[in-house]
Fold each of these.
Amino acid sequence: MLSFSSADINLWVAGLLWPLTRILALLASAPLFGNSAVPASVKVSLGTLLAMVIAPVVPPQPAADPLSLAGLLIVVQEMLIGLAMGFSIRIVFAAVEMAGEISSLTMGLGFATFFDPNTQGRSSAISQFLALVATMLFLAVNAHLVLLSALVESFYSLPVSASPVYGGGFKQLADWGGRIFSTGVQLSLPIVAALLITNVALGILTRAAPQLNLFGIGFPITLGVGLLVVAMTLPYLATPVQNWFLDGIERARLMPRTWSQRQNNAPPAPPVQGRRPAGLSVVP
């Protein structure tokens, strides 16, 4: 007859609960997985399935009661690690959405805003369109699979531990968040430059022919030029956005390593530049 003690049950529960916490936190914050259109039951089911696959092969976990203070602190720590890894990819989508906001304001589509269920706010039409393009590219290059691979790798680079992590990884995430503004401006620069030339031309035309109604012809011309430039630049978005996905996944890989090295009092490893994660496809 089999008999189990409470310590054995606590060990089994903790062995599944702690990896599940990190996985669910990443699924909640990462793009595509954390989309509000995906039902919560699907996210929990996917996270539970991944936890059941990953938990038996992760390094040994601390023998702590999951209902104790130490166990709850481990849960909070695992949740923060998963959220940080998911946000490192979400920042790329935020940069693309910011480029759409800048383009919309320059084109005169600042009034064409819609409710965005992901951010619980308002976003412009061009911003949502570019976000959809980035999502399709995210799936086309298998970045969602590479992100899950980085999640599995994090359990080896930063095993579940009762030792607290330090703020080095969060500082990397904050520094990476600055790319939202620089990347958004770079991505919208062709549209802004074309519309600037268009507005200068309209100003010269109005000066030469004062009888023209600038408000009557300016808006459709500006809107038409903006949409034309957006259509012309779409084929060239694959390479830069794919490189940003590469950088975001590398940040997600490096943050657990940084925390692990801080715990072991080792110097942090420098960021890896120019290396493509295994499994990331190339869009021709």
Note: Residues 266-276 have pLDDT under 50 and may be disordered.
Amino acid sequence: MTDFVAHPEQGLAWVTGASSGIGRALALRLARDGFDVAVTARDHEQLVQLQREAPGPGKIIVLDGDVTDPRDMERVLASIEYEHGAMALTVLNAGVSIPVHGEDMHREDFEKTFAVNLHGTVNCLLPAVRHMQARGHGQIAIVCAVAGYGGLPTGAAYGATKAALINMAESLKFDLDKAGIRLQVINPGFVATAETAKNTFSMPALISAEEAADRIVSGLKSGGFEITFPKRFTYMVKLLRFLPYGAYFWLLNRLTGWKDRPLVTPRPAAKAMTRDPQAV
């Protein structure tokens, strides 16, 4: 039984990382389509503002939480079950992107990225699957990225988590299909958000968060395993993996101009994390 596609009358949707970017745009789009949407992030004020902007007919339900805390995510799921009803759809979107340069690596950058992107997803996935198993059906989508297709400059931490999420979802699909739970991965290209605004390099085929939300909703309805967009860019990145490594590294250096960029000045170890990126 793998043909389940969530509809508003079957239960609410849960979106993590909903305070900004893709998660925020997706929550608004799902509410416009009639879903009541539980939204989770650490920024309470941003979630409350999102709640005010809900276009209806669905409403936004604010459930603050930190995805890196498994007990917090168990609490969120308990609140959904006992206060708001059945959950038909889950979109696990919370994540951070911390660039890593090989000549300036710091353990904290890896640990933060793994804690939010990988362990944070697992912390949400486990209770969501249990909830849906009890009802015999459900739909879960995990936001990954084309960075998970292969190694890219500065992506040693971020890309590693996204590759792990893709592999994890591929592995779990075999069993979740039998349990009646549709599992999907979402692999967007460049989306205009506060995080990508910090990029200092060209971002081909850049789309807005609202357009990304439209593409995701379309993919959720179609039910295919991978939702990826814009295909003119993401398929090209995927095809790079079929190249021999020599050609792969040569082409990426040529396309990005990375080989000609100067090395960065290493940060002092004590100041490796001068900011605390939010799990938005």
Note: Strands lie at 12-16, 37-40, 60-62, 87-92, 138-143, 181-188, 191-192, 207-208, 226-229.
Amino acid sequence: MRILITNDDGINAPGLEVLHQIATELAGPRGEVWTVAPAFEQSGVGHCISYTHPTMVARLADRRYAAEGSPADCVLAALGDIVKFTPDLVLSGVNRGNNAGENAMYSGTIGGAMEAALQGLPAIALSQYMGPRTAGLDDPFDCARVHGASVIRRLLDHADWSQGDDYRLFYNVNFPPVPGADVAGLRVAPQGQRQGSRFAALPYDAPNGRRFMWISGGSQQATAREGSDVAVNLAGYVAVTPMRADLTCHASLDRLSAALDTPLGQAAE
């Protein structure tokens, strides 16, 4: 198996080393693992691409490259120039911090996996939830390191990897904020939303009088609806969420069409 890995924490992030270990185990002795990751941290860039300016790519070692761009840029750089084959699998992560709930909307880790799926490739985003029980660990990525390869193998064996005419599915995996030995199990869960926890802008006045702001996240221990990715993670389970690059609310289409599908200027009855 030939695997492409990327992340949003940057080429030197410890989570990328964890992912390389996971990918190497999956690829096997006859496989290959190629790394194309951002030269600098790109957390929070989502599915951003460097559409209006060029991106420098540097070869750091055999099968190891850094790009001055987003995770999605890294996937595009890999497929368009660096690797001369079609990867069997694209893995993005392991992110330091969860990408469950509303975090998924901002995540560069998910953006890398989404770009791979848009390019027609099987892709999985992986993130390690952090919390009080990981803070004292010698390896805060212990849970992802211990269970990562097993979870991916189960996805490869049982998930929907078909490529039809619609947006291809990719998968978001969040490892819970517990040591690997304490994981309660695996749960397939929808994306949740933490209650009363939002990203916000914090204004700051610099000594020269200029106005700046910091973006802050909300509490990662806030609750979300039962059965959601956030809830199962906080209960000690690995959360797997199928996703696709389709923001349509399909449940609303029929009702809204019945009300709005009329000539302009003519009200529906």
Note: The chain is about 25% helix and 25% strand.
Amino acid sequence: MSVLENFESWKDFLGDRLNQAEGQGMNKNAVNDLAFEIGDYLATKVDAKNDQEAVLRELWNSASKNEQHAIANAMVKLVQNQGNGR
């Protein structure tokens, strides 16, 4: 099963990657920029696998660039305490 098929698995996956990035010294701005790039990629290239991802895609696609950055930043905050590094 793909991490994209279950929203909790997806949040855990993102949380793990966030903890790895921070553990390797990546600063908050770089993490947020990467989250924006990932969000843009997912919204344009990957089919939503569940209702939550479909809602996020619709929000992303209806948002301005500034709003997309805010969505990406909110996802980072959502998963900060997710994953193995809790």
Note: Helices lie at 7-23, 28-45, 51-62, 65-79.
